[in-house]
């Protein structure tokens, strides 16, 4: 069974009410792309309004707490996200791992909580420049992703995102040969740990300075099943060409 492409936007800490028109425009463009799944993960404050601005379109969040509720000042639960209409959540983004010291076990716990709360998950992994230059990227990333997976690995409810940290927001995209090598290695490792059937169905997205101009080359690779897009997901003008590239 062929994997459907998934193009997910990550608005990070961008977006207020006046930006909702971009979500509406993106959702309208996405509607005509039957073969591609499209989603946008917005700040918490925009979720409910984004759902209203783009009925039927997948709106997600960028973080979730592992617990169902409790004394966790400033955090948010899967049930809270689901209640306002979120369909998915990103966990383990390198900006969470670095700025908030989130590790693999916490990422896995967040993924568990999200799935239990009815949200799909995008589990992120990626290496630093030092690790890449030391020649340890493939092993490091494969170990990281396996340790970050939820207890129940269901490819219909999740996707993985390989995002080399040095390529995020820098305009630098990993070399096609490095992306191909990493995605194939991740899939092989999933097959080893969770079986070939799950590995064959698992969508592995690339992230890191994906743009309309470089998306087609990335999407042409056998093991690249879409993209997690930061900066270029903020406007329909920049995001729709990436969706179109996934269709072709
Ligand atoms: P970028 O971000 O597309 O702006 O590089 C990607 C990401 O962090 O998900």
Concise synopsis of the structure shown:
The protein is an alpha/beta fold and 248 residues long. Helices cover 44% and strands 16% of the residues.
Low-confidence stretches: none
Spatial strand order of the main sheet = 1-2-3-4-5-6-7-8
Our Rg estimate from Cα atoms comes to 17 Å
Distance between the termini: 18 Å
What is the tally of beta strands?
A: 8
Helicity, as a percent range: 40-55%
The CATH superfamily label reads Aldolase class I
Number of domains: 1
CATH fold name: TIM Barrel
Provide the fold topology.
Blueprint: E1 5-10, H1 20-31, E2 36-41, H2 44-53, E3 58-61, H3 78-83, E4 88-91, H4 94-99, H5 104-116, E5 120-125, H6 129-133, H7 137-148, E6 158-162, H8 176-194, H9 196-201, E7 203-207, H10 212-219, E8 226-229, H11 236-247
Parallel strand pairs: 1-2, 1-8, 2-3, 3-4, 4-5, 5-6, 6-7, 7-8
Helix pairs in contact: 1-2, 1-11, 5-7, 7-8, 10-11
The structure holds 2-phosphoglycolic acid.
